[in-house]
Amino acid sequence: MTDPATNPRIEIPTRAPSATPTDDTIMPFEVAALDLRGRVVRLGPLIDEILARHAYPDPVAKLVGEAVVLTVMLGSALKIDGRFILQTQSDGPVRMLVVDFTSPGKVRACARFDKDRVAAAIESGKADGSALLGHGHLAMTIDQGPDMNRYQGLVALEGGSLEDAAHEYFLRSEQIPTRVRLAVAEELRAGQGGASHRWRAGGILLQFLPKSPERAHVADLHPGDAPEGVEVHTLPEDDAWVEGRALIDTVEDIELIDPALSSERLLYRLFHERGVRVFRAGALRAECSCSRDNVEAMLRSFSQDDRDHMVENGRISVTCEFCSANYVFAPGEVEAKAS
Length: 339
Ligand SMILES: [Zn+2]
Hints:
Strand content: 25-35%
Structural class: alpha+beta
Shape: globular
Number of strands: 15
Number of helices: 10
Bound molecules: zinc ion
Oligomer: single chain
Order of helices and strands: EEHHEEEHHEEHEEHHHEEEHHEEE
């Protein structure tokens, strides 16, 4: 091993990485020697609660899990109070994914999909995330309340995965070299009364943020002043980013979801030669923001005709798509208030 005293580029660790994994957390980190910053997400009970409640077909659940990890990674980075919403709309068997992140750590998620097409995709062995999504777009919205502007970022889904879409977004819109890894799996546990399944998910995001912005050029980013259709590869990628990206590409899915591997140990495994600094991890939880009051307000905003069509067996029943909570109203309860 290189002696830190003779090699000033290697930082001396101030303590050993914690071996204790903490589920449902997001941990920011920094590799100063390479100008890299990132976040590690590890989800246990949170993702199991969301996915078990929906009971979607497994490949759909997996895709929702990936979207949750991505949303948490992006939403928690915003230094705002409010909501960050990631939403896909596409022509694949999964028509829509919605994940809602409310600062500092509340998450909910749901999907809309065509049952028959999902079953056919599973049958034909083509039910990975990219096949389920198909073509369309992914929108990211920041909502800071009724008096604030909503900011929306858009990226095309072109038959790739959510990871691909995230890379494309950061390359085109933010122009920050970024690498994202997402993993979701079911953990099988032997126990009394038979084996039990539990969903787990995890991910890592790595970004190259050098002090001089010209170092952040990415080889395949098309210079804006070049004529349409001309591919120009004149800017070599920075060595620090090439190294960071290569390290991230070695991360296996199992390392991201392994219940026995702590986020700190994973980071140490990846970056110990350069020195990695971790910051306080943020706690995450599955929690819906629906309420009887909100549902009632929504029903009042509908036309009388629309409300009449919702009456079944003398009552209006509304089920929250995110958490399956059921709200039942007598038709008279939700008459529009006379103005
Ligand atoms: Zn709900």
